[in-house]
Specification:
Low-confidence stretches: none
Strand order of the largest sheet: 1-2-3
Shape: rod-shaped
Strand content: 25-35%
Order of helices and strands: HHEEE
Radius of gyration: 25 Å
Number of helices: 2
Largest sheet: 3 strands, antiparallel
Amino acid sequence: MLKFTDDKGAGTVLAIGLIGAAATLFLITAMLSNLWLQKLQLQQAAETAAISAADSLRGLSTGYPCDVAKQIADLNMAKLAECRIVGFDVYIKVRQIALGIVLNAEALAGA
């Protein structure tokens, strides 16, 4: 029967492993929370672009509605993917790439 009585250094290896696992978990959590924050900012950009385009459509501000929406999207570092006008409603879809993931947001504004 074999007996292992020399366990020197086993605690160090265990501690390094636990610290590595904790650091990895922290980095994953930080990346996911950053992605969630960018998604919220993209949604805000879509809503702002839709409201501005609807104001332009109704004559409350100058410019063509989809051009105004594109300017607002560009200011928020997003790409205008779609702009549809039906009656006095404006549908906007914007897109952004974050951490290699394509994020989409859409908004509808009207009278």
